[in-house]
Amino acid sequence: MFVLSAPIVSTKATCLQVNLKQDSQLWHNRLGHLSYDGLKMPVSKQMVKGLPSITTPKDLCTHYLAGKQHHNAMTKRSLWRALKNLQLIHADLCGPIRPVSSSNKRYILSFIDDLSRKTWVYFLSEKSEAFHYFKIFKALVEKETEESILCLRTNRGEEFTSQEFADFCQNHGIKRQLTVAYTPQQNGVAERKNRTIMNMVQAMIIGRNVPKIYWLEATKWCVHILNRSPTLVVQDKTPE
């Protein structure tokens, strides 16, 4: 059944046999690396028939330990904060949202200033429109604040990683911060803001018994409220 590589120690025919003294590990493997406490319970309470008495081995199964590994928790607070407006902008795309809005929009593109935590949202029909609305957002906020966007933090979605987007940022001196794949925690400010907005939208629509097709209008109002509400990371000021 198996190929065994072993040095020849004798010219005589040899029979290789494995004797299994402890079958607890065997049943642990058979039952998908179920915990040993879980293996003992059916035996002690006579829940199943045919399962032998299980004892916990001295050395735990390495495959079981490897399967239970998980990512270390990331710090909830950033180790660095922007010192002026537009020094760092967080951006994220939320959607597709169903049902489609009355104006045929399916996505929410949000921009959050790291210092003030003020939020701007744009509504898209397709992901490919993200670059177009970023240029509109850039022109708006730079004229309002008389500052320039220095850094843009996004995930690695195709809407943010196109060559056209990269060339535009490079030509305007905007540094890019792209999160590691499958690690939304690195863009936690934008991810959390989108969740907050959508929770408020759902609560408002349900509370007023409004058709879900009006989520776009509700989102505009929620962002207007959040920009004028206190937030923990900004002391004694609202984002607005």
Description:
The protein is 33% helix and 11% strand. The chain has helices at residues 24-30, 36-44, 62-67, 130-145, 163-171, 188-208, 215-226, and strands at residues 89-94, 107-113, 119-124, 151-154, 175-178. A hairpin with a 5-residue loop joins β2 (107-113) and β3 (119-124). The radius of gyration is 29 Å and the shape is elongated. α6 packs across α7. It has seven helices and five strands. The mean pLDDT is 80. The chain has 240 residues and is α/β, with parallel strands linked by helices. The chain starts with 23 loop residues before the first helix and ends in a 14-residue tail after the last helix.
Largest beta-sheet characterization: 5 strands, mixed
How far apart are the first and last residues' alpha carbons, in Å?
A: 72 Å
Q: What oligomeric state best describes the polypeptide chains here?
A: single chain
* Helix/strand order: HHHEEEHEHEHH
Number of helices: 7
Side by side, the strands of the main sheet go 3-2-1-4-5
Strand content: 5-15%
Q: Tell how many strands the DSSP assignment holds.
A: 5
Q: What gross morphology would you assign?
A: elongated
Descriptive labels:
240 residues, alpha/beta, five-stranded mixed sheet, elongated, 7 helices
SSE topology sketch:
Blueprint lengths: L23 H7 L5 H9 L17 H6 L21 E6 L12 E7 L5 E6 L5 H16 L5 E4 L8 H9 L3 E4 L9 H21 L6 H12 L14
Parallel strand pairs: 1-4, 4-5
Antiparallel strand pairs: 1-2, 2-3
Question: How would you summarize this macromolecular structure in one to three sentences?
Answer:
This protein is α/β, with parallel strands linked by helices. The chain is built from seven helices and five strands.
